[in-house]
Amino acid sequence: MALPRVLVLVLAGGAGGRLQLLTADRAKPAVPFAGVYRLIDFPLSNCEHSHVADVWVSIQQHPASLAEHLANGRPWDLDRTTGGLLTLPPSQGTERAGFSTGTANSLWRQAELIRAFGADALVVVSADAVYELDYREVADAHLQSGAEVTMVTTEVAADDAARYGIVEVDGDRVTGYAYKPDEPATTTATNEVFVFTPGPTLDRLEQLRSEVGEEGLEDLGSHLLPAQTRDGLARAYPLKGYWRDVGTVDSYWEAHQEFLSPEPPIDLDDPRWPIHTRGGRHSAARVLDDGQIENSLLSGGVRVSGNVRGSVLSPGVVVEAGATVLDSVLLPGVRVEAGATVTRSVVDDGVGIGRGCSVGGEGAITLLGLGAQLAEGTEVPAGARYPDDETS
Domain Glucose-1-phosphate adenylyltransferase/Bifunctional protein GlmU-like C-terminal hexapeptide: where (predicted)? Predict the structure, then answer.
C-alpha cells in the first residue's frame, strides 16, 4: 500500500519584528542558532527524518539571506530530480500575486499550486521554533481522525500564554480556540504546526475570502482555525518533547542557555535525528594562550584567548586576550578586543567590540545590531538596543 502523499509548506515570510535588530537585514528563519545552525534547519531536518520529500518554502522578507542558505536543499536530502525543495517567493502575473499579509493569506496565495499537487495531507509549519517532530506520524494520525485540521500542541507558561493560539481540548478534540487571547483559558498552545486536509481547507479559505476579503484573511488563527474548531473538525496532537519559540530576543537568549546545560533539551548530534545545516567553511575552534572556557559552545573558526563562560560562539568569533564574555550569544564574525566585557548579550554578525568596551550587564538582555562597531571604551548598558539607542 502506498504511503499517503504529504506536502510540507514552511511559511518563512514573516517580518520577525519581535527579534528586532536580528531580523533587520535577514529573514527570521535565517537567524543563526546554537553556533552553526539556522532556525529553518529544524523544520527541514524534521522533514528529512520524517521521510517527507516534497517541501515548499514560502519566502518574502530578505529572501537572499534565506535562499543562500537553502541552496538546492542538499543538506536535508531535498536535491531530487522529482519533488524535493521548492522556494515560493512573491510573484506577479496571477490574481493571487503580490506580498502576503499573514499566514492564512499566504496559504490562499498558494492554493492553486497546492490543489494541483494533490497531497493527501498538507503540513504547514513556521520556522521560528526549536523542536523535533515526525511530521509523517502526525499526518497519519490526522488522516485516521477524519478531521479537517490537526493542531500540534504544547504546554506554555501561564504568564506567556497570551502570545499563542490557545486551545481547549476534550480528549483529542479541540473544543475551543482563541488566537493570542488577552485572558487565555488554558496553557495549551498550538506550536505553529498544523496538518490540513487540503481540499476542504482550501474551499473554506475561499469562502472566508469572499466574506472578509483577501487582506482580511490575515493569519491562520484569525478566521480559519476558529471556523474549523466551531464546526467540530479540529483535533489536537500533543508534542511530548521539547519545544521553544525563539521569536523574541529574550526567548532566543534563554533557548541558548538551555542548550548550554550538561544535558541539553535536544541532542543536536543524535545519530537517530541529527539536525543538518549547510556545510561550514571554517577550521577547528582554537583556545589560545591563556584562554579559558567554561560551559560554552564553540563553533568552527572560533579563536579564544580571553575568558568565556556560559556563552555560545558562532563561526569565526574572536575573543582577544584579556576580554571577557559571560552568558552571551555571539553570532558569526564578532570580534571582542582586549579588555572588553560582554555580559548577557546577543551580538549580531560582524560586530566589533573595541578595547575596554563594556556591553550589557545584569538585568535585561542587550542586543547589538548587524555590523555595529564600538569604539574603544564604549559603554552599552544592560537592555540597550544598539545602534537604535543613543549609546556611544
Answer: 290-361
